[in-house]
Structure formats: structure tokens, C-alpha cells
Amino acid sequence: MTASDTGKLLRWIPTLYFAQGLPYVAVMTLSVVMYKNLALSNTEIALYTSWLYLPWVIKPLWAPLVDLVGSKRGWVVGTQLLVGGGLAAVGLLLPVTDFVRWTLVAFWLMAFSSATHDIAADGFYMLALHPHQQAAYVGVRSTFYRLAMIAGQGGLVYLAGMLQARSGSFFLAWQGVFLLMSASFFVFAMYHRWILPRPAGDTLQDWPLSSLGRDFIAVFSAFFKRPGIGVMLTFLLLYRFPEAQLLKLAVPFLLDPPSAGGLGLSTQEVGIVYGTVGVTALTIGGILGGLAIARFGLRQAIWPLVLCVHLPNLIFVLLAFYLPVNLWLVGSALAVEQFGYGFGFTAYMLYMIMISRGPHQTAHYAICTGFMALGMMLPGMFSGWLQAQLGYLNFFIWVCAAAIPSLYVVSLVKIDARFGKKDPG
After folding, report:
1. Can you list the domains of the chain with their CATH numbers?
2. Which end of the chain offers a freer environment for a tag, N or C, measured as fewer CB atoms within 10 Å?
3. Whole-angstrom Cα distance, residue 105 to residue 86?
4. Both ends of the chain: CA-CA distance in Å?
């Protein structure tokens, strides 16, 4: 690979995957912080925002359209324009009377656009790069996806807090944040329309109506006919069962005052300790988790990794019990929890790759990610109501106990002895 080739690839891979991460953060995290700032209850926040996972749950249903109609390059640019329009709609709809309903509609449409962008971007990446380049640049794409999380959960949450302090209104603050994000996506679309290469395999295609339905059913049937599919799907649904509930209530817990059982942090402080420090620790944990699997193999590493996902949830129990006021202490505790989650989550990702292997690997991996999103959506929907009944302390104790089904299903899975392990040579 020449320096010229490297330079060309670095002109678009970082921006493409930064653009892939931002709308997901907006839908999954910024929406939670915004609605909490705008005085929605935890029950409403968890229920409403959990429904926003649905486009990522069902995206395998229209993935063949992205693969068979038009070009991946065209889908990337088009969906970035749609995401920009959705972000603008959220900002412009905040001043209306029934803003919750209408902003949720805008988030919903943006989520569909973002899920479609994921399919197109990943497909374009595979078409534009040779296999050895795909492996060489996977670290670049994952790094910039994580940087988008830091920019969203950290920088944009901090910006919202700063704008609120100046304007006195969370409505104006979040309107400014979403309109700024919208403008950035129109810039992304124009930039990628200019900079993205035109791979020979990424051509306009006709829609083969006669065979699409038959091929579509065959691909899905092959996945669900795998031996042990019941255990596989149970693993995908339950591995993050505790985290799916915790994730929806972590930010409300940080923002709620001590009188309500929370830590009483400001929006800016949440942006620092959870969005910046926490996501940085999450990223480092993910890198080290991947190295651990490469060293020992997935089967040997699975138990230490799954324990690293669940045991750090005890930190939230301690935070809810002691309600510390020292920001450094809170940030350090969240860093440990996020590091453990990032470290252990690599096992989940590698397991999906393992069970997707075969002639339909791309489509089967998309099905796995759909079940991954479903495993986050369903527990998140009732987590807000459960927290309202139990209070934060008892809720976090329940989250720790909810790891039992996850640990049990891990004991049932079958993993190839050498899968994920780096060859000695």
C-alpha cells in the first residue's frame, strides 16, 4: 500500500464513520439527556427512547434493497442528507406545544435514515477496500466511531449545558445543538459526494423483482436453520440484559437531585464525566478486550469478559448508596464501569462474527445486529417504570441481580476452541 493510497483512504474513512456514529448518539443518548432536561419522567424517557431502537432491530428487512438498488455511494450521500433533515426537524419542533410527540417522530425518521446509512457505509467500505485494507483500517473506522460518541455524549452535552447557562432555557440550548448537528450533516453529505471514490463494483443496479423475494427468504432461512440457533438467539438477547436497563437510567441518575436519589450533576458535568471520561474508558476497554481475545481465544476469554461486563454495575449501587459529591470520584467510578463494559462487550461482537460465518455472512451479521438492538430495546422499555417503583438504589441492586440469566446462557454457548485467537506464526 503506497503513501498515496493511504492518504486517499484517510480522506474519507474517518469522516464516514464519524458521520455514522453521530446520529446514533443523538437518538440513543442525546434524546435521553434532552428529555430529562425538559422535565419528562424517567418512565416516559425510558419507554419513548427505547422505541427508537426499532429501526436498528428491523434494518435487516430492507438491507437487500440497499444492496440491490442504486449504488452504495448514492445511499451514503442520500441518507446523510436525510439525517441532516431529521436533526433540523428536532431543533425546529422543540418550540411547538406538543414538542414531545413531534420530536419523537423526527427522531424516529432520523433513526431509520441512520440505520440505512449504517448498511450503506459498511457495504461501501467493503467494496472500496481490498480485504487486506479492510483489516488494516478497521481500527481507524472504530476509533472515529468512538470519537463521534465522545463528541456527542461529551462535547454536545457540555455545549447544551453551556448554552442553557447563557440563555436560561434548555429549549433554546437543545435547539441550538440540533441545528448545529444538522448543518454538519449537510456538510458531510457535500464532502462525501465529492471525496468518496467510485469503486468498479459500486454501480447502479436494476431491482431483480423475480428473484429478490426467493433469495431473501433463502438467506433468512439459512440463518434460522443453524444448529443451536435457540441458544444463539438467547445469548444475543440476554448478554446485555442488565446493561440495557442501566443505560436508560444512568444519565437521569446523574442529573436528578439527591432528594430524588440522584447525584445532582449539572448537564455540563455529565458531559465531562459520562460523555468524555466514560466513553474514553469504554474505548480503551474495547481495545484491550480485543487484544485479550487475540491472545487467548474467545472460548478461553469468555468468562473473564462477561464478568467484566456485569460486576462493575455494583459501582452504581455504591454511588446510589453514598451519593458522593466529589466530581473526580464520580468520574473515576464511571470510568471503571465503562472500561469493564467496553472490555467485556468485545466478546459479544466476536460471537456475532463467529455465528455469522458462511456464504451469507453480511446478511447474517445484519440479522445478529438486529437481535442485538432488540436485546437493548425491550428491557429498556420497562426500566424507567421499574426505577420509579424501586428508587435508584434498589433499581441498581436489581440490575446486578439481572446478570444471572446472562451468566446462565453464557454457560450454554458453544465456541470454537481457536476462534479469535491469533495464529502463533
Report:
1. 10-197 (1.20.1250.20), 219-425 (1.20.1250.20)
2. C
3. 9
4. 22
Are 347 and 301 spatial neighbours (Cβ–Cβ below 8 Å)?
A: yes
DSSP track, 281-311 = HHHHHHHHHHHHHHHH-HHHHHHHHHHHHHG
Return the C-alpha cell found at 130. 481490498
**pTM of the predicted model as reported, rounded to 2 decimal places:** 0.79
Which pLDDT tens digit goes with each residue over 256-288?
999 999 999 988 898 888 878 888 888 888 778
Q: Which residues of 265-281 are buried (b: 16+ CB within 10 A; e: fewer)?
A: bbbbbbbbbbbbbbbbb
Q: Among residues 184, 16, 162, which one has the least CA distance to residue 87?
A: 184
Are the beta carbons of 115 and 56 closer than 8 angstroms? Answer: yes
Q: Which of 218, 198, 216, 210 is nearest to 67 (CA)?
A: 216
The answer to whether 88 touches 110, Cβ cutoff 8 Å, is: no
Question: Side chain identity at 211, as an amino acid letter?
Answer: S
Give the DSSP per-residue string, 174-243.
Answer: HHHHHHHHHHHHHHHHHHHHHHS---TT-------HHHHHHHHHHHHHHHHTSTTHHHHHHHHHHTTHHH
Query: For position 184, what pLDDT does the model report?
Result: 94
Percent of the chain exceeding pLDDT 70 equals 88
Instruction: Pull the grid cell for residue 281.
Output: 474508558
